[in-house]
Amino acid sequence: MGNLALSTSLFRTDATTSEPDNSGKFVARRICSGIIYYYTPMTAAEHQTVTLAKDSQATLTLLPASSPVSLETPSHTAASNSRPLLLFFSWLGAQPGAVAKYRDLYLDRGMDVLLIQSSVMHFLWPRWGLSYGLEILNMLEEPPFTGRPILVHASSIGGYTFTQLLTHIAQHPKQHAPLAHRVIGHIYDSLVVGSLDHMATGLGKTLVPRLEGFVKTTAMLYFRLFKSYTADLYENSIQVFHNSPVTSPALFFSSENDAMCSTTVLEKLMDLWRRRGVSVDGRKWKKSTHAAHLRCHPEEYVSTLQQFLNSLPVPSHKSNI
């Protein structure tokens, strides 16, 4: 990659591991590198429902033996299929403690959570990002995720990864349109939007803050040298996102001092979606930290999120976050 010969250790962004939960509140299953499935054990009511279904000889959805997700019992599969699934596309280098705060917001609301982490190489070489997106898309069309209502929460580069799924849906609408219709809402936190300069700035600030200027300059050179493999594909992704096949309500969290996001471009995007008939809400702060609005403004963040979720047709046994 020319002058982009940085150590591969700088690109290890899959920081979250499947930590044990001794409280018994949830079960964590690593599906593959970068993807972890969190689900809560059955409640008494769910257990009774499954028992009645079995007694009436109803057909339960069982996982095939080759499935990468190892669930403990068929009962969990039947119960979880009635729960909404939160797809959490995290930011680069997300640490377990930070991710847990978002995960618990949704687990406490009665949803299961699929944590999806991105590697910086998915971004630097978009063809790998597209392959990763197709892998995720296919996974969502198989048990135990088949047919479940989906809520998307994408933070920073997570918005890019979600766009790779949208690209496949846009290219093959007959095959993947049902999944787009399953998305009941989508949330974008610190979306990286604007020019290539904003993208390069994001790489510098995220990968090696002490060498931010060097990383940014090297990234811009890389984008120019491999334009047809990078910049051109980024532009295509932007167009797909602008004309997203997902038209359910959307919520954007942002701040005016975010160097990785052009507020002008973001507001134009939100207006474009509104003209397309999409219900769009937003919460913008004058000062905050990229991908850390929940930490900087916890009460306002949770209040805005709860109001948005309460407006969606999310089946849940719990009314509050």
Automatic annotation (TrEMBL):
This is Si:dkey-5i3.5. InterPro entries: AB_hydrolase_fold, DUF829_TMEM53. It comes from Poecilia formosa (Amazon molly). One of its GO terms (molecular function) is serine hydrolase activity. It holds the Pfam family DUF829. It comes from the Eukaryota. Gene3D superfamilies: alpha/beta hydrolase.
